[in-house]
Amino acid sequence: EAQVTQNPRYLITVTGKKLTVTCSQNMNHEYMSWYRQDPGLGLRQIYYSMNVEVTDKGDVPEGYKVSRKEKRNFPLILESPSPNQTSLYFCASSTRGGNYNEQFFGPGTRLTVL
Amino acid sequence: AQSVTQLDSQVPVFEEAPVELRCNYSSSVSVYLFWYVQYPNQGLQLLLKYLSGSTLVESINGFEAEFNKSQTSFHLRKPSVHISDTAEYFCAVSVKAAGNKLTFGGGTRVLVKP
Questions:
Q1: Which of A23, A42, A51, B70 is close enough to B104 for a disulfide, judged by CB 3.0 to 4.6 Å?
Q2: How big is the CA angle at A97 (ends A95 and A103), to the nearest 5 degrees?
Q3: What integer pLDDT is reported at residue B98 of this predicted model?
Q4: Interface of B with A in 12-41 (CB under 8 A)
Q5: Which of B91, B81, B88, B75 is nearest to B112 (CA)?
Q6: Residues of A in contact with B32 (CB under 8 A)
Q7: Rounded to an integer, what distance in angstroms lies between the CA atom of residue B74 and that of residue A84?
Q8: Once rounded to an integer, what is the mean pLDDT over residues A60-70?
Q9: DSSP conformational letter for A73
């Protein structure tokens, strides 16, 4: 089954404790992206990757890091989480030309930073 | 830069009644337009998209949206909703010239009542 998976689905942590949210896709997509969803603000892009070893900042990159060592994986790293990073996070992937092709979304990771 | 405004944050509607979700965008260049749907506790799924050609686009489950260039709108409609249409709906745009970036509106939560 073609899908984007994220782990963990739910995470409660404390300020300053480094964490990683994993994202994996099995569709051989070149493009992958991370979004955060906050009430009334829709989804905002954090980082994206056009292909292996190619990453770039989205609209809200502060406090986040990413890496793309393999085509299928695109982990999101919070080196020192803060309460304002409490949010619902989505990973997405698409083929090259994803501005007109469908983006496939993972099920989401709900993060709470205390 | 482009932006998307969804004018209604919540729309309560009775089963079998029609519904319209409003979406307006701003962009200085040509765009592609999308509606994504998020069912409770799930990721986003593509509902329909406008790339070019006929300004009226339809989905397989009875939704339709009409691109109006002069009013920079892409409103979503369904003539008769079902309980299963209860979800949050996001309008999104991408710029034809630039990568895969999607810009989302704030979302409209549709609650279908029996």
A1: A42
A2: 55
A3: 58
A4: 32, 36, 41
A5: B81
A6: 99-100
A7: 32
A8: 97
A9: B
Q: Is A94 on the interface with B (CB under 8 A)?
A: yes
A46 vs A38: CA distance, rounded Å: 13
Say if the Cβ atoms of B104 and A43 lie within 8 Å: yes
Contact A36, A60 (CB under 8 A): yes
What size, in residues, is chain B? 114
* Total number of residues shown for chain A: 114
What average pLDDT does this structure show over B57-76? 92
- A108–B42 C-beta distance less than 8 A: yes
Q: Are strands B10-14 and B108-113 parallel, antiparallel or unpaired?
A: parallel
Tell me the per-residue pLDDT of B2-20, one tens digit each, with 9 for 90 and over: 899 999 999 999 999 999 9
Classify B85 as helix, strand or coil. helix
For the residues A36-55, what does the mean pLDDT come to?
A: 92
Q: From chain A, pick out residues whose CB is under 8 angstroms from the CB of B101.
A: 45, 48, 58, 99
pLDDT number for residue B41: 85
Q: Give the pair of three-digit tokens for residue B113.
A: 């009542």
Q: How far is B80 from chain A (nearest CA, A)?
A: 26
